[in-house]
Amino acid sequence: MKRFFLLVFLFSFTAFSQNYLVDYKFSIVDNKDEYGIIGFSITRLITNKTESLTLSKNIDTTAIINGKDEPHIQEASPFAVSQYKNFIDGKRFSRTLFPKYNLKDENYTIPWKIEKSFKTILGYNCQKATGSYRGRDYICYFTEDIPIQSGPHTFDGLPGLVLEVMSLDKAIVFKAITIEETNEKIYNPFDQDKKEYISWEEFVVAYKGYFEKMSNYKPEEDIEFVVPNRSIEVYFTK
């Protein structure tokens, strides 16, 4: 009997602590006006049931967007940490670029609606869910074959791992391209920083101030500064 309980304990612990590594192809093509951005990258998610670590790298890209004369050119970059999430306490940690802050986001939960629509992604049976998040509406597909409530960026909280996300305006797309079990460790790299954290709401206020400052900046040379008002999230509307 003791041996039986020991085996059950070991099996449960192993299943609970299993880490997965998922690579997603990510694109943001938001060029309806001058305040959106364009970018192409690989998002790497290392995750288990309690936490996740995300890294990203740009990929070499030369693309003609919507028939424009000048191509969008982007050089490749190495993987760099972009965020950490703790599912137990519902917190997301990241570092903003402009201005540079350490962000602790505690209000990113998406109220999903699960629908009776299915498709196969990388051999996994996936179910459709829809939801709204900070200025955009989304469709995503998750698989209960991997019962981890995780996914790229903030797209988690469903009964299984999220493998595909697309905004209805088609500006934002995440598509899983590989999935594997991994022994890579998950940790919070932002704990090593001595900077204080700001909330999402504080970041939006700070970013709007930065946006207005740069938009009103008049250099001596004939140069125009254009600062986006949105990325995946819509920070504010013009």
List its salient traits:
two-stranded antiparallel sheet; globular; 41% strand; mainly beta; twelve-stranded mixed β-sheet; disordered N terminus; 238 residues
- Strand segment count: 14
Into which percentage range does the β-strand content fall?
35-45%
Largest sheet: 12 strands, mixed
Indicate the CATH architecture: Clam
State Rg. 20 Å
Question: How would you classify the helix and strand content by structural class?
Answer: mainly beta
Q: Strands of the biggest beta sheet: in what spatial order?
A: 9-10-11-12-13-1-2-3-6-7-8-14
Helix amount: 10-25%
Low-pLDDT residue intervals, each spanning 5 or more residues: 1-15
The fold-level CATH name is outer membrane lipoprotein receptor (LolB), chain A
Quaternary organization: single chain
Count structural domains: 1
Q: Look at the structure and give the mean pLDDT.
A: 86
Number of helices, where a helix is a run of at least 4 consecutive DSSP H or I residues: 2
Describe the global form.
globular
The CATH class: Mainly Beta
Could you state the order of secondary-structure elements as H and E? HEEEEEEEEEEEEEEH
| Separation of the first and last Cα atoms | 67 Å
